[in-house]
């Protein structure tokens, strides 16, 4: 036991440090676990424009970025003409990007979560996105479980797990809710 001396605190330094850490942990954990994304019934998140000059590193789809499933990290979106589809948007690996009719574009709000993201993989950006044939001013982001999902004309973007190679559009028209996205953010009218 410490004996207090004149001018010294009665509370040992370790106890003070433990109290500070004990109070800070719940605050930090709460901030980390709170969802900045908009799920059904939650407030719409803020959007921003990720277009800038320095691209982020690109990695293939990976597990672990999202509590609900996979993520697809991209650094580029481009307009490509696919046979039978017309002009659609693809990512830096040439994979077709899709929009979901149940999502909302203004303000951006995603509704695909949980098991849905194992089939429809959210397109995640880490910093900037380069474009080719897609107007940068139409790009934005929405926060999703601590990650940043890319949007086009407000629509959150996804990859379809059934597209196993570049230039495929196997997700077109799935459930009459999923459509390849055009360079202006519209859904492709081509039948899949």
Provide a compact summary of the structure.
The protein is α+β, with helices and mostly antiparallel strands and 192 residues long.
Question: What is the fold's blueprint, element by element?
Answer:
Blueprint: H1 13-33, E1 62-66, E2 69-73, E3 76-82, E4 86-91, E5 97-100, E6 104-105, E7 108-109, H2 116-119, E8 120-124, E9 130-132, E10 139-144, E11 147-152, E12 155-156, E13 158-160, E14 178-180
Parallel strand pairs: 2-8, 3-9
Antiparallel strand pairs: 1-2, 3-4, 5-13, 5-14, 6-7, 8-13, 10-11, 11-12
Note down, in words, how this protein is organized.
- With 192 residues, the chain is α+β, with helices and mostly antiparallel strands.
- It has a domain of 119 residues.
- It is 13% helix and 31% strand.
- The protein is built from two helices and 14 strands, in the order αβββββββαβββββββ.
- It has a six-stranded mixed beta sheet.
- A hairpin with a 2-residue loop joins β11 and β12.
- The longest helix is centred in the first third of the chain and has 21 residues.
- About 25% of the residues have low confidence.
Report the radius of gyration as a whole number of Å.
22 Å
What is the number of beta strands?
14
**Percentage of residues in DSSP E strands:** 25-35%
Mean pLDDT rating: 75
- The helix fraction, in percent, is 10-25%
H/I helix tally: 2
* Sheet with most strands: 6 strands, mixed
Strand order of the largest sheet: 1-2-8-13-5-14
Spans of 5+ residues with little confidence (pLDDT < 50)? 22-69
Terminal Cα span: 76 Å
Q: What pattern of helices and strands is seen along the backbone? A: HEEEEEEEHEEEEEEE
């Amino acid at each position: 036991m410490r004996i207090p001396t004149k001018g010294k605190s009665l509370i040992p330094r370790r106890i003070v440090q433990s109290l500070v850490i004990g109070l800070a942990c719940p605050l930090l954990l709460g901030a980390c676990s709170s969802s900045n994304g908009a799920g059904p019934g939650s407030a719409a998140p803020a959007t921003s424009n990720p277009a800038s000059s320095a691209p982020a590193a690109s990695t293939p789809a990976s597990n672990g970025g999202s509590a609900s499933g996979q993520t697809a990290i991209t650094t580029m979106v481009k307009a490509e003409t696919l046979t039978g589809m017309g002009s659609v948007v693809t990512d830096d690996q040439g994979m077709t990007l899709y929009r979901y009719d149940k999502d909302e574009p203004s303000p951006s709000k995603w509704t695909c979560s949980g098991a849905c993201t194992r089939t429809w993989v959210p397109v995640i950006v880490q910093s900037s996105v380069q474009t080719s044939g897609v107007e940068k001013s139409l790009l934005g982001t929405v926060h999703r479980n601590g990650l940043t999902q890319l949007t086009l004309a407000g629509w959150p973007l996804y990859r379809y797990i059934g597209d196993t190679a570049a230039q495929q559009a196997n997700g077109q028209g799935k459930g009459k809710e999923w459509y390849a996205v055009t360079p202006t953010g519209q859904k492709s009218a081509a039948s899949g």
